[in-house]
Design a protein that fits this description.
Helix content is about 70%, strand content about 0%. The protein is mostly helical. The chain is elongated, with a radius of gyration of 20 Å.
Length: about 250
């Protein structure tokens, strides 16, 4: 309760007199939120960048959120800031063209193969997708890991909406394009949850551990008895399958 009061006081003081010193106090208070967001994103720094660079990109989003936030609307700053932090990181990553042209072609090929397999067989098996892609196991696994790292729209907001812990108005507080563009209504969140329920058991487990339980890929690997790399591949397959299912529902 004291933390909530302190947070309210911080914003009230800044609203009454928005000095740089008070803004800096707000930034310092929410720096851990940047680490949380970056840690939850299934992306890795491209060549020439490191984890600290990703955090610095997130600061841009945090500053944007502070400038736009209106406490009088009744939703939490964390809810408002998360999509802006994530969007700022992704905007900067796009400038580095962190996925090569060849990588994008592989992802497109994977997505098309999964859509066709789902349509014709009603399920997903690695051998089916590999056969449809016309690739060997090595290339297939590399593509799945790329799909995992390139996943842009996190499911965090969807899971939170389903649990009722997040204000949907807070997430959609303005017309900002980016990570929230796919979530235009509660119906969209429900569609995502329905699609998740149709994934194979292992994919569903990884999604559940990662997005519901907040575990890292390494921690999930320990639970499932597989390597972190394998978990990344399962995550990539789950994401590609989810996208294909959502396309079919549209």
């Amino acid at each position: 309760m004291e933390l909530e009061i302190a947070e309210a006081d911080l914003w009230r003081e800044y609203e009454e007199n928005p000095t740089e010193e008070r803004k800096e106090r707000i930034v310092k208070r929410y720096l851990p939120l940047i680490k949380y967001v970056v840690g939850r994103m299934a992306v890795s720094a491209p060549p020439g960048l490191d984890y600290e660079d990703l955090l610095s990109f997130g600061v841009f989003g945090l500053l944007d959120a502070i400038n736009r936030f209106d406490p009088s609307k009744g939703f939490s700053f964390q809810t408002f800031a998360v999509p802006r932090i994530r969007g700022a990181v992704l905007d900067e990553l796009r400038k580095y063209d962190w996925i090569s042209r060849t990588g994008r072609e592989k992802l497109q090929k994977l997505n098309r193969a999964i859509e066709k397999v789902l349509r014709e067989k009603g399920g997903l098996r690695d051998e089916w997708v590999m056969r449809e892609m016309g690739v060997d196991e090595k290339i297939y696994k590399e593509t799945l890991e790329l799909a995992s790292r390139s996943f842009i729209v996190s499911l965090d907001e969807v899971i939170a909406l389903e649990d009722g812990d997040v204000s949907f108005e807070g997430i959609l507080a303005d017309d900002n394009e980016g990570v929230v563009s796919a979530l235009e209504s509660q119906d969209d969140a429900r569609r995502v949850m329905d699609a998740l329920a149709r994934l194979p058991e292992r994919e569903t487990q990884v999604i559940s551990f990662y997005y519901y339980e907040g575990l890292t890929l390494k921690e999930i690997g320990r639970i499932l008895g597989v390597t972190e790399s394998r978990v990344s591949q399962i995550h990539g397959k789950a994401i590609a399958g989810l996208k294909a299912l959502l396309v079919r529902q549209a």
